[in-house]
Request: fold
Amino acid sequence: MLAGSLAAVLLGGCHERPQERKASGSSVPASRPPAAAPTATETKLRVPRIAAAPKLDGELTDDAWHADVRTHAFVDAGGQEARPFSEAHFLADAGTLYLGLYAADQDIEPSDAFHLSIRDPGDAAVSYALDISATGAVTGTRAQQPWKSGLELAIDRDGTPGDARDEDEEWVVEAALPLAAIGAGSANAIALTVSRCDTPKGGARACGSWGAGPGGAIAGVLELEPKK
Ligand SMILES: [Ca+2]
Ligand SMILES: [Ca+2]
Reply:
């Protein structure tokens, strides 16, 4: 690990790193101080349609990701920025929703996961749940029944899952979800919540989310740009 990266982890906590890594792939200037980073208060996001799919390698550096829309920092139940830092990025093409899920994490455990709740755009009575773990395990349900989502993904990790002796840093999921799998093949909006819980070393388990309504209701909306 580079000395600079280590210093960022030690001195700035888990929060500085995302700004550094996103600098090449976003409109957020690298010089923006982490303290000024907005939080996930906007629960409606307009998702760009891209022409060329990103390569799924866990690195959100593809040209396609330059067009992404992001949640900004997940928030806790009180609406404050959740620690450790989490953020989700979205893109779409004609048939796929692309997800970039960033997790700052000083102690990566195999059970660490992002959780997505998605409402079927064509049938509000049907919802999907997806768990994507730090080791790439994916479990899905549709209407509480086991479901194969067709999700493809790659994960990039800086750290060693399941070994608390060292200091981990982060893990990133780059995933492609077929829109048809969630009934959204011709939809122009998707209701969705994404969340993540984590237990820092020596700390208490804490959760953050984007698009979570009262009582766990799905309150986030992804508005998909018209197909090109
Ligand atoms: Ca990539
Ligand atoms: Ca963890």
The chain has one domain: 42-224. The domain at 42-224 is CATH 2.60.40.1190 (Immunoglobulin-like). The chain has a mean pLDDT of 86.
